[in-house]
Amino acid sequence: MSAILIIALLVAMGATAYVLVRGVMAMASGKLGNQEQQQQWMRKRVLYQGVAILIAALILILAGAGR
Length: 67
Known about the structure:
mainly alpha
């Protein structure tokens, strides 16, 4: 079970990094002139970050319960 959670955490962290880099690159190139599109990238990043934090917390809770 912990292996599945670790893989899920890595996927969530990768998704967060991807969305962050993609959003920054789009804003730097000027492709995102629209405020709503910029907000969508930020919302996706925050969502993936939250998922990663929840998975990390779950891993820590399960590790503490095993003692």
